[in-house]
Amino acid sequence: MKQARAPRCRYISAASKLTSDTFRSPNQNKFSERTHACDEVTVEHIGARVTLCGWLLYKRMQFALLRDGFGVTQVVLNESLYRVIENAPTESILRVEGIVVRRPDGQAREDLPTGQVEVVADEITVLNLCKDVPFQPREYQKKTEAVRLKYRYIDLRHEEMQRNLRLRSKMTNTFRRHLIENYGFCEVETPTLFRRTPGGAKEFPVACHSHPHEFYSLTQSPQQFKQLLMIGSIDRYFQIARCYRDEGARPDRQPEFTQVDIEMSFVTMENLMNLLEELMRAVWPSSLQEFPRISYHESMELYGTDKPDLRYDLFIEDARNLLNAVAENLPEGHCIKALRLPGGVELVKSRHLKDWRKAAKQLGINGVSEVIKRGDGSVKSPIASLIDNDQFLENSMTIIAWGPQKAVLRALGKVRSDFAQLLRLSIISSFNPDFKFAWITDFPLFSSDENGKLESEHHPFTAPHDDYVEFLDSDPLRVKSQHFDLILNGWEIGGGSIRIHSSALQRKILADVLGQDCSELEHLLKALDSGAPPHGGFAFGLDRLIAILCEAPSIRDVIAFPKSHDGRDSMANAPVALTQEDLEYFHLGGLKSPEGRDPSGHSSSGNLAS
Amino acid sequence: MKQARAPRCRYISAASKLTSDTFRSPNQNKFSERTHACDEVTVEHIGARVTLCGWLLYKRMQFALLRDGFGVTQVVLNESLYRVIENAPTESILRVEGIVVRRPDGQAREDLPTGQVEVVADEITVLNLCKDVPFQPREYQKKTEAVRLKYRYIDLRHEEMQRNLRLRSKMTNTFRRHLIENYGFCEVETPTLFRRTPGGAKEFPVACHSHPHEFYSLTQSPQQFKQLLMIGSIDRYFQIARCYRDEGARPDRQPEFTQVDIEMSFVTMENLMNLLEELMRAVWPSSLQEFPRISYHESMELYGTDKPDLRYDLFIEDARNLLNAVAENLPEGHCIKALRLPGGVELVKSRHLKDWRKAAKQLGINGVSEVIKRGDGSVKSPIASLIDNDQFLENSMTIIAWGPQKAVLRALGKVRSDFAQLLRLSIISSFNPDFKFAWITDFPLFSSDENGKLESEHHPFTAPHDDYVEFLDSDPLRVKSQHFDLILNGWEIGGGSIRIHSSALQRKILADVLGQDCSELEHLLKALDSGAPPHGGFAFGLDRLIAILCEAPSIRDVIAFPKSHDGRDSMANAPVALTQEDLEYFHLGGLKSPEGRDPSGHSSSGNLAS
């Protein structure tokens, strides 16, 4: 089931509780030509002379609307002043000087901060004519995202993009202030030009002029540097860090993104989770409930996922008693589970059921069935003959799945998440935005791929739980880690862990358990031997967090200049083929630029030299 | 003359006025195993039980010194506790629990915040043994920079690096708070993966998997994006932005650096300079005098440079009256200038004179001479026969230069700057650190290269002074710009300007005056036509500013993990050759990785495919 896009107009929730005062600063008009922003002129200013600068939103004989990034003010013009702007198209830039007066009776607008007043202009200047706009800012919803990204500077003028970006700036500043001023963190900027990490296929390579045929790699995260900072006595580090990942065309990812990156010495998992929870509460615009802690195992059992959306009281149940015939012959490692869908009779369509069966099949299970009990007590279900009708409520829908435990849980996890979205869309007008954070803990340290090869469930620097170290050799899949995730409304917002500070243990896990070559990490292993304090840290994705806060349908709505789905900059066109001259300069001359073509054009063709 | 490196031990000036309270936060020990940092334990805590975590700095029967990033605490141990750490080398990590007591009479140390007390330990734990350090943190001065960078995590433990990084974090936070909370700026993160700009040979190319043979370029600055943000109604933007420049081996530059980047709509040059000055005063740890404004012309005339060090009252003077014989036959455009060097008789050695003559010759002038008037009134000078002795003071040194005006001024500018450094080093013990900011204004908009081709003095988006627009066609070199530089103690800290907001003027300057192809900037020109407000902005280098504040000899001393002189990461070794597999993945397969070599080794050899 595709993620439906919520209509944009309703997507500010916590943000909608913010008044325009949230974004106001005492000296926001100092050092500029204006005396007030276009949302600031109110009854308090009646009789005052003001200077406003902004975009012409609308004009008609005698009056005009002036818009800036904050709001709109109505301007009254006499005939000779009107002539000044008569030929100025909307979106031209004006400076208006005049006196604030109360609007005539019956013309006040309660929905605007400036709705009680208007400015009677005595001077008006066209600062720049708008000669050409591809669309009016208020029409952005009619445009495809491709057009919006190509002309992002128009899209940004809309009040929602303004609010998203300003909210992001405010919130990031609040994070910083708390970390630095309250908790004694030191913000350190770490390099992004670094060397490839083992297995770092997703790291963009960077060529340079001075070192032919050698490449920097853009860092995926400051992981190594933050551990080195702990070793270097910066005991509380954070950074709002730019990170890079060459993931190609993934719909809601960006090749560069922002991570709030934290590391601390002399801490436990408890310490880290408590700090993060206190921090989130301090910066969040609305009040938050306590963050529950849910073990990975429990989360999988109850929700069929390790990032459940806790806004919905939908729980996976054991269903052996619903399906006795199957239960009797259940093989080892198999289970029967059910998820009851209140309101499902109305909301769930046959295409959803088809979708869920297909998804389950991909997970390797055939046994997925719905049970619908009608108001008259009759049951509609492919497995009607196998079930006990009395176990179901009238007017109810239940999805039952059986087969290998993991696949059953994941299949019902998908049903749960899709149904939650149906619920959300069904109550769209009355939907009360809510933010349910939770911690997921007790993850396994390793997982095994299809060939039985062990992999780190998170990354190889994660410390095992002390109680499980003894099983590293004998039963590594049993080892639990000191990793924890922070989830919010069904998204994994971030993750953290206690790191390994013993070089012996780190070497053992890299070499013996994971079978990796340690040579590319010798600098880190040597650093652990030089007096590395016990340490741990956390990172969370700022783009996603702000997008959830703004209820934006995509992280692109909280990034000023995002790349499009396929990683391109649609405005200026990047990436782009380089000229042969540039290729030679950076020692990439072995690659011929596409012949006979304008090097500024973009094409994925191009010949290898040989 | 090479820039002498000031001894590092004396380089904290404004920073030295900061007490350790500057870096203290109310909850800096909350959510951690320690109760106090190692600088916090004072007479206030006598009788209290504390837990400290830190590095073993020194041990001897009965006592040990424990160090963390903040300070040092003395710990008293009984014999059995001593045995716990007996075999722990220095730089091992300990946790110490105990009671704070007053030091015995005569053992107090006034120079340490914790010098009145010690902690009588009742529990001590070795958290991690230090098995191997290449050097002790306090010995870093004996080490070459190459060693220090390779083992940066040890270097960072020294109190100066701690102070530099913590000061940088504090100061950056203060900048942010003022901009956001006081002046209404919105911090916006702009892309670093962008397309090459015309003539952008210094922009690192970035390959990717999804778009074969196309490259992003890492941005040198957010210039285009910040202008687009103004067009997009974010009327006050700033960003503490990572910027990239592939400059190869330049001694005090870094391939990635940090810029405080500011842009505002509806402002004048005056507005921008006033804001910046107010901002600098607000964040600077010591009080600052008013920033004088000096025109480019005046600065060249008085100081022979556009970034004079105003801590020294040394002024270039007209010297026609000193050298009448030459003055009589002075060609058009030539001049005679002099710089008096108080104390020069003692400080200036013959190697300096030789150096200055050589530099002058490179600038194209032969006429540079010293005039030394001894205490007995006699004069020693190569041009003794040409000068009038009475014009010179006894025990004085004067440098006289004549020839083409520009070259003469630049030659004396070098003399001035070198002599200032001699003065600084000569009074090293009594040198009172001072910070002299100034604005340089009225720059020419264009300069011409050796072939007479016009170039932008700064960048092509800089607006001309209104009064000079009329000369754009007829006499472009006469046109002054709305650009201004901020200088501090002889360094250019940053620069700003009013930008061009008219597409017609921008196109005229790009195409008609500079003869550039506009096609790669069409997106910006189109944006200017969509209602671009008048706007301007500023950017300053954070690394340099903090280095001057800390009186650090190099910007590398205020960067946690700098690259070395040649742009390499010495710790992990980057850049590095990629494996053939990685090259193929990123469509760089045309470049063969050096054959038969370990791909993790670094070498500048490597074969082009063909």
Automatic annotation (TrEMBL), chains A, B:
One of its GO terms (cellular component) is mitochondrion. Signal peptide: none annotated. It comes from the Eukaryota. Residues 589-610 are annotated as: Disordered. One of its GO terms (molecular function) is ATP binding. Residues 165-575 form the Aminoacyl-transfer RNA synthetases class-II family profile domain. Keywords: Aminoacyl-tRNA synthetase, ATP-binding, Ligase, Nucleotide-binding, Protein biosynthesis. Residues 601-610 have a biased composition (Polar residues). GO terms for biological process: aspartyl-tRNA aminoacylation. Belongs to the class-II aminoacyl-tRNA synthetase family. Type 1 subfamily. NCBIfam families: aspS_bact (TIGR00459), PRK00476.1 (NF001750). PANTHER family: ASPARTATE--TRNA LIGASE, MITOCHONDRIAL, ASPARTYL/LYSYL-TRNA SYNTHETASE. This is Aspartate--tRNA ligase, mitochondrial.
